[in-house]
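README: folding subset

This subset contains proteins for which both the sequence and a predicted structure token string are available. Records are stored as plain text. Below is the entry for 2-pyrone-4,6-dicarbaxylate hydrolase (292 residues), shown exactly as it appears on disk.
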Amino acid sequence: MPAAPPLCLGPLPTVAAARFPLPAGACDTHAHVVAADNNAYPFVPERTYTPPPAPEASYLAMLDATGMTRGVLVQISVHGTDNRYFLEVLRRHPQRLRGVGVVDPSASDRELDAMHAAGVRGLRINVLFGGGVGFDAMDTLAHRCAERGWHLQFLLDARRLPELLPRMRRLPVVGVIDHMGHAPVADGIQSPGFQAMQHLVRDHGWWVKLSGAYRISERFDDFDDVTPWARALIETAPDRMLWGSDWPHVHIPRMVDTGRLRNQLADWAPDADLRQRILVTNPQHLYGFAAI
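--- output ---
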């Protein structure tokens, strides 16, 4: 019998104070909710990990504690294509929240239209953790997204991007790359994967989430080796950068402080006007939030 997926640590109960003023309308564009009732909302058996509950109330408390006016929820892989809990949370907060869902390419138009009404503005391709939908569905899902003005979000290792570029350039929608490419920053910004990511952002209007520094760094827990990587992305296209906490920080050996992760923006984007774009203007444009 295969081993049970490992249990994850829970998020820290407090967050570090902000090092800079948070602007009105600031948005955390990448976090997850995990239902507390696994009988009503079961985990998929093919999952890579088993998280503790991260319910709606805890998520909203995190947004408040980190100074975020708005948030974008991403359907977590352990719930697979069962978007019910994620959608319930979105429906209860239509002004504050938007979402990125996970669906089988055969999902009905009725299902997708209901997701749009709930606040979903994109679909996710995930090839790193069990329970996701992979590259085989990319072209079909991209066309389903195009019909609704959505984007396609990618959880992948940027080292795979060079081989995928021909397909990605042809997609009828823009893409959003999770966690700054989820590739080791030790590879450097001249690496083929980073250069391919820059190409998609600079020449094809793609977006990058400045999130998950702890997933690509070798320096716990300030992750300062990520600074050159993040700055290079911001310099490539400041109007295509988004920030996300990646709360509740699943599948990592040591828990991180969500407030300290937010504070990295002070080093990555020292200028207040630039942080305004990353935290407010850019997500407002991509996810369709009302203007502040």
